[in-house]
Amino acid sequence: MSDTSVATHEPLAVCYADIESAAARLSGQAHHTPVLTSSTVNALTNSQVFFKSEERRVG
């Protein structure tokens, strides 16, 4: 018995023009939040790590 609930799909290729198009559609819709870095975390992980700061207003 074969499992027919699992579909196989080819991976979608995303090109730079797709990203530009998405950015244009989202223009003015997304709120920009800062991206933070840490030299300590970078040294500990031997890589460059970015932290996306999400500040949610409460109340």
Q: Uncertain segments of ≥5 residues (pLDDT<50)? A: none
- Helicity range: 25-40%
Number of helices: 2
Average of pLDDT: 85
Could you characterize what this model shows?
By secondary structure, this protein is of the alpha+beta class. It has a domain at 32-59. It is 31% helix and 10% strand. The protein has helices at 16-26, 39-45; strands spanning 35-37, 50-52. Strands 1-2 form a two-stranded antiparallel ribbon. The radius of gyration is 19 Å and the shape is extended.
Give the arrangement of secondary structure elements.
Blueprint: H1 16-26, E1 35-37, H2 39-45, E2 50-52
Task: Summarize this structure as a short list of keywords or feature phrases.
59 residues; alpha+beta; two-stranded antiparallel sheet; 2 helices; 2 strands; 10% strand; extended
What is the compact description of this entry?
The protein is α+β, with helices and mostly antiparallel strands. 31% of the residues lie in helices and 10% in strands. The termini are far apart.
